[in-house]
Amino acid sequence: MDLLKRDNFSSGAPFEEKVGYSRAVKVGNMVFVGGTTSTNSEGVVEGAGDAYLQTKIILKKIEEALTRAGARVSEVVRVRFYVTDITKGQEYLRAYSEWYKDVKPVITMAEIKALARPDHLVEIEAEAIIGSYRVSGH
Predict the structure, then answer these.
(1) Which among 29, 47, 30, 50 has a CA at the least distance from the CA of 38?
(2) CATH code for position 31
(3) What is the tens place of the pLDDT at every residue in 93-132?
(4) Is the model's pTM score more than 0.85?
(5) Which range of residues forms the domain containing residue 61?
(6) Distance (Å) of CA 39 to CA 45, 53, 57
């Protein structure tokens, strides 16, 4: 069995080192971006109360993590949303479409009881395959 190289990518958040997780992990040509919120490096939840703005902030953070790992938004194949209020779905999806409308990865949106902080409305994960490209829209 051939072993695949694994690289961990941190966002620099102190909690990553304390708890033991990475913002993104690259294995071979696959990149996995873990659950991302709109909490900034000072620990402040940006966009409190605004589902659209939180989603935009998160998707920008995910794009930055993908870039550090050598992937592009166009190579994203899966996006998962965890939301605390599914009735704001159109707000989350309006921001999502600004990044992924033409990429068309598979998507999941699930309503959950709560996230790590009461001000978090949404947490998002993404997965990319470096070197993949869209050939059709069957």
Answers:
(1) 47
(2) 3.30.1330.40
(3) 999 999 999 999 999 999 999 999 999 999 999 999 999 9
(4) yes
(5) 6-129
(6) 4, 12, 9
